[in-house]
Design a protein that fits this description.
Aspartate Aminotransferase, domain 1, 16 helices, Aspartate Aminotransferase, domain 2, alpha/beta, about 450 residues, binds pyridoxal-5'-phosphate, three-stranded antiparallel β-sheet, 16 strands, five-stranded mixed β-sheet
C-alpha cells in the first residue's frame, strides 16, 4: 500500500509564527494558563477545534464571488437548497448561521417542560438548547462506547433496547423526537453504524416518534460505514450518506464541520407543519428563509463544500491522517481513546499523568505543556470543562473521563505538521512525571472553561 497523500496542492498559504520556549512560557502565563485566552497568532499548530477552521478550495472561493446577495430568492439559496435536497432527500431546507441556531429553532418548537429528548450523546450546544426549553436531554450511548480502551468499529451507536425501554417508561407523548449524533463528537468522534440507525428507526416508528440526525460529521460517519460495516465496501459514500438520511425525518447541521466552511448551518426536514413554524421563528432571529443569517456567498461555499466532502480521496486522507497520528502515539504507549475517531485524537489524561488527581486537572496540565513545549494548542475535556461542585460539600464532582482533545482542522495541516505534533507529544509524554497539578483561581458560573484562570498548585 502506498502512502496516502494530501489530495490537494496548495495555492494560497498562511505563515505560522515560530516562538521560543521562553516566549511561550510568558504568553501562557499572561493567558492565565488557559488556551482559550491565547492570541491565535502565538500558536504554531492550532488543534483547539475542527469547527469553522477548514481550508476552503479554489472552487469555494470562486463561489464566494458568485454569491448572489439578493435579500429574497437569491440564486445562491437555490443552489444550496438543490445540493442539500439531493444529499438528504428532505423536503424543506432552512439555512441558519450555525448548527446551534438550527437546534434552538427545533427545540423551542418541540421542547418544553416535561419533554424528553433521547440521543446517543448530546453535543454540549444541543444539550443546552434542549435544557433551555425546560426539556430533559438524555444520553443513551451503547455500553461499549463508554470504555475508552476498547477497540470496536461503532462506539457511537445508540442503545436501541434502552431507547425502547425509555420510551415505554416516559410515554411516547412526552418524547417529541429522538436524535442520533453522527459521528458522536462528545464520545470521541466515534461513528454510528447504518444497522444501528435502522434499528433505532424501527423502534421509533413503532412508537410514532420522528428521528432527527445531528449530521455535523455525516461524511466522516458514512466513510467509516464504508470501511467497517458489512455490505457497504462497494457503495459510494454519497449513497451511504443518502441512505443514512433516508432513515431520518430531518437533521440539524453545522456546516462548520463537514461542509468545509468557516460559518453556516441548516435545518432540513419533511414535516410541513414543523417547517412552517421553524420558518416563522427563523424570520425573527436569523432572517428571511432564503438566507437565514448567512450571506449569499456563504450559501455558495456550503453548496460547493457539500460536494467536495464526499470525494472519497479526501475522506480516505482525512480518516487516515487522524489514524496515522493515533498509530504513532499508540506505538509509543501514549494513552488515547481507542480507536481514533473521525476528527480528533483524545489523550487519556488519567493514564498520561496518573500522579495528578482529577481535582488538580491533569488534562489542563498536559494542555499547557503541549503549548509550552511546541506551540501546540489543544483543549481539556474533563474536570475543567464538565466539573461541577457539590452544592452541599462544595467539592468538585469530576466527569467519568479526563481527556485532552487534539482536533484536526480539515485540509489545513500536512503530514509533516502531524509528525511534528507526534514529536512534541512524545517529548511531553517522556517527561510526564514532571507535569504539575493546577488549580482554578477565577471562574465564571457557567461554561467556565472558556474564561477560567489557572495557577500551578503548590
Ligand atoms: C459543532 C456541533 C454542533 C453545533 O454547531 P455550531 O455550528 O458550533 O453551532 C452541534 N452538534 C455537534 C455534534 C457539533 O459537533
Amino acid at each position: 500500500m502506498k502512502t496516502i497523500i494530501e489530495p490537494f496542492k496548495i495555492k494560497s498559504v498562511e505563515p505560522i509564527k515560530f516562538t521560543t520556549y521562553q516566549q511561550r512560557e510568558q504568553t501562557l502565563k499572561k493567558a492565565f494558563y488557559n488556551p482559550f485566552m491565547l492570541h491565535a497568532d502565538d500558536v504554531l499548530i492550532d488543534l483547539l477545534t475542527d469547527s469553522g477552521t477548514s481550508a476552503m478550495s479554489a472552487k469555494q472561493w470562486a463561489g464566494m464571488m458568485e454569491g448572489d446577495e439578493s435579500y429574497a430568492g437569491s440564486k445562491s439559496f437555490f443552489r444550496f437548497e438543490t445540493v442539500v435536497k439531493e444529499l438528504t432527500g428532505f423536503k424543506h431546507v432552512i439555512p441558519t448561521h450555525q448548527g446551534r441556531a438550527a437546534e434552538r429553532i427545533l427545540f423551542s418548537i418541540v421542547g418544553g417542560k416535561g419533554k424528553f429528548i433521547p440521543n446517543n450523546t448530546h453535543f454540549d450546544t444541543t444539550r443546552a438548547n434542549v435544557e433551555f426549553t425546560g426539556a430533559e436531554a438524555v444520553d443513551l450511548l451503547c455500553e461499549i462506547g463508554k470504555h475508552p480502551e476498547t477497540v470496536a468499529p461503532f462506539k457511537g451507536d445508540i442503545d436501541v433496547l434502552a431507547l425502547d425501554r425509555f420510551i415505554q417508561e416516559k410515554g411516547r407523548e412526552n418524547i417529541p423526537l429522538c436524535m442520533i449524533t453522527i459521528t458522536n463528537n462528545s464520545g470521541g468522534g466515534q461513528p454510528v453504524s447504518m444497522k444501528n440507525i435502522r434499528e433505532a428507526k424501527k423502534v421509533l416508528k413503532r412508537h410514532r416518534i420522528p428521528l432527527f440526525l445531528d449530521a455535523c460529521r455525516f461524511a466522516e460517519n458514512a466513510y467509516f460505514i464504508k470501511l467497517r460495516e458489512k455490505g457497504y465496501a462497494n457503495k459510494s459514500v454519497r449513497n451511504i450518506a443518502q441512505e443514512m438520511f433516508s432513515l431520518a425525518d430531518g437533521c440539524t447541521m453545522s456546516a462548520k464541520k463537514d461542509a468545509l466552511v468557516n460559518i453556516g448551518g441548516f435545518f432540513a426536514l419533511n414535516d410541513d407543519a414543523l417547517a412552517a413554524k421553524a420558518r416563522n421563528l427563523l424570520i425573527i432571529t436569523e432572517g428571511f428563509p432564503t438566507y437565514g443569517g448567512l450571506a449569499g456567498r456563504d450559501l455558495e461555499a456550503i453548496a460547493q463544500g457539500l460536494e467536495e466532502i464526499l470525494d472519497e480521496h479526501y475522506l480516505q486522507y482525512r480518516i487516515r491522517s487522524i489514524e496515522y497520528l493515533g498509530e504513532k502515539l499508540t506505538a509509543s504507549k501514549v494513552p488515547i481513546v481507542q480507536p481514533p475517531g473521525g476528527h480528533a485524537i483524545y489523550l487519556d489524561a488519567k493514564r498520561f499523568a496518573p500522579h495528578i488527581p482529577t481535582w488538580q486537572y491533569p488534562g489542563q496540565s498536559i494542555v499547557c505543556e503541549l503549548y509550552r513545549a511546541g506551540g501546540i494548542r489543544s483543549v481539556e475535556i474533563g474536570s475543567v470543562m464538565f466539573g461541577k461542585y457539590d452544592p452541599q460539600t462544595k467539592k468538585l464532582i469530576s466527569p467519568p473521563m479526563e481527556l485532552v482533545r487534539l482536533a484536526i482542522p480539515r485540509r489545513v495541516y500536512t503530514q509533516s505538521h502531524i509528525d511534528y505534533v507526534v514529536e512534541i507529544l512524545l517529548e511531553v509524554f517522556e517527561s510526564r512525571n514532571r507535569l504539575k497539578g493546577m488549580k482554578i483561581v477565577e471562574e465564571a458560573p457557567t461554561l467556565r472553561h472558556f474564561t477560567a484562570k489557572f495557577k500551578y498548585a503548590a
